[in-house]
Amino acid sequence: MKLAILFGGRSYEHEISIVSAITLKNILTNCLFIFLDEKHDFYLINSEKLRADYFSSGEYKFSQKLEITHRGFKYKRFLNTKFLLNLKVINLIHGADGEDGTINSLLKFFRIPIISPSTEASVISFNKKLTKLFARSVSVPVLPFETLSIFNREKEPDLDFPLIIKPLRLGSSIGIQVVHSQDIFQYALDSVFEFDDEVIIEPYISNIQEFNIAGVLTTQGLIISKIEEVSKNRKEKSEILDFETKYLDFSRNETQDYEIPQNIENELIENFKKLYSPMFHGAIIRCDFFLINNKIYLNEINSVPGSLANYLFDDFQKILEITQPVNNLLPNVNYKYIQKIKVSWELMIV
Questions:
Q1: What pLDDT score does 126 carry?
Q2: What would the pLDDT profile of 283-295 be if each residue is shown by its tens digit?
Q3: Which of 309, 265, 307, 266 is nearest to 287 (CA)?
Q4: What share of the chain in percent tops pLDDT 70?
Q5: Tens digits of residue pLDDT in 123-160
Q6: How far apart are CA 190 and CA 336, in angstroms?
Q7: List of residues 6+ apart from 161 with CB closer than 8 A
Q8: Which residue(s) pair with 201 in the sheet?
Q9: Cross-strand pairs, 146
Q10: Which of 156, 204, 318, 333 has its CA at 20 to 30 Å from residue 64's CA atom?
């Protein structure tokens, strides 16, 4: 099967998806790149043209336009129709379309193998409240939290300040606000509600250790990545790892080595396994954890991490080749029940 990176989509994270694709171009060989633009049209992109201004200028529209079809894509060439079949599509669409289950459902409908969280897993990980409830259900600790909608925004938070407010369904640190006192709380809500009509509120804890760990189920079993500690120099610009820092961070293809105590490493791996299996089989995900008072807490699940967290794995191309696509078993339609009813009905008439 030929690897095909699917990127773009219509979301606030559209540009980050493009950056991720450009990064993977430099480390993957013999791979197709399929772009989904904001109008939900598919384009086959020549890897040599994978650069930011190719998309921002609209020049990509001169690329070969594709149509999705049974088991692949097709395009017209003169009097013939060409097909791109026998693909293993890798979902690299960040945010809406890619992480909310839309793309997985679409490709499942057309019987196209895809490396991506299932629709059910996407729905859970795309919503920060559902993520925390899921984590609790598998005994992975999370910080206290509250949610507010734009319709009950006058409710006072029960948590103590300082607080961090995040859009409920958005990643890449977009829209996040740190609030140190009650007098600016409503103003901060206004800012976050520009991105989502629901928000999640958590305690803001400064100067804590953060760890990232990724993994994927392959034909050789579950492969766990190296564990990365989020270095202070990546957070020094602001109180959070902000959009700009993450945007640039996605273009990495390596990570620094850190000495992590063995007990902490073991706990991170065990918590990752609890979250991954079986919910995220068929996907490459990255989980971000906090270490507070020697206790591990889940921060978030990145179901389509920036650049697929390739920098945390050795021989990432091999990882993709042996990754098992999401299991999209579908029943066979044989009409046995209708035939049985038909026979019974005919006997009744006789």
A1: 96
A2: 999 999 999 999 9
A3: 309
A4: 88
A5: 999 999 999 999 999 999 999 999 999 998 888 889 99
A6: 57
A7: 179, 180, 181, 182
A8: 146, 165
A9: 201
A10: 318
Pairing, β 87-91 against β 114-115: parallel
Annotate the chain with three-state secondary structure.
CEEEEEEECCCCCHHHHHHHHHHHHCCCCCCEEEEECCCCCEEEECHHHCCHHHHHCCHHHHCEEEEEECCEEEEEECCEEEEEECEEEEECCCCCCCCCCHHHHHHHHCCCCEECCCHHHHHHHHCHHHHHHHHHHCCCCECCCEEEECCCCCCCCCCCCCEEEEECCCCCCCCCEEECCHHHHHHHHHHHCCCCCEEEEEECCCCCEEEEEEEEEECCEEEECCCEECCHHHCCCCCCCCHHHHHHHCCCCCCCCCCCCHHHHHHHHHHHHHHHCCCCCCCEEEEEEEEECCEEEEEEEECCCHHHHHHHCCCHHHHHHHECCCCCCCCCCCCHHHHHHHHHHHHHHC
By the 10 Å C-beta count (0-12 exposed, 13-18 middle, 19+ buried), 37 is classed as: middle
Look-up of token digits 């773009």: 8
Nearest 10 degrees: Cα torsion 224, 283, 28, 213 = -30
Banded model confidence at residue 297, pLDDT cuts 50, 70, 90:
very high
Nearest 5°: CA angle at 89, between 135 and 22?
A: 90
Contact 61, 86 (CB under 8 A): no
